[in-house]
Amino acid sequence: MEEITLNVNGKVARVGVDPDTPLLDVLRNHLGLVGSKFGCGLEQCGCCMVLIDGKPEKSCGKAVLTVAGKDILTIEGLGTPERPHPLQTAFLDEQAGQCGYCLSGILVSAKALLDNNPTPSRAEIAAALDDNICRCGSHLRILRAVGRAAAAMCAGAAA
Ligand code: FES
Ligand code: FES
Question: What's this model's pTM, rounded to 2 decimal places?
């Protein structure tokens, strides 16, 4: 056991865990942030994706010690029901998803994309989400929703 200090969604959190514990376990079981999902547990499906220092990373295979002191963003830090992120609004508007299990990972991956490339092409959106699998096959709506969010954010910035 070791005390590890994490910076999650802009707040400092201290946890006493085995340093090899996967970050996903710590988020879900120690910090109560259950938006990030356990899918394959093998770094293959992307439903556990979070942003670490702004970069999408799969949290199921990442030892918590390796992210101590880094900025971690989970779906809980993206927006709120009162003030949703434009991506969340666009996903609702496009009804982009069925069961929703993949969406927290997809939304944070899409945020990383739009932070770095506010006007991505469809091919760039698809490439950015290549590590995120949607078992329901909602990919076409998901691509549309990310494009819609990009357009809304650009329009907002220009207004
Ligand atoms: S649960 Fe982490 S990639 Fe599938
Ligand atoms: S909406 Fe069900 S896995 Fe993507």
Answer: 0.96
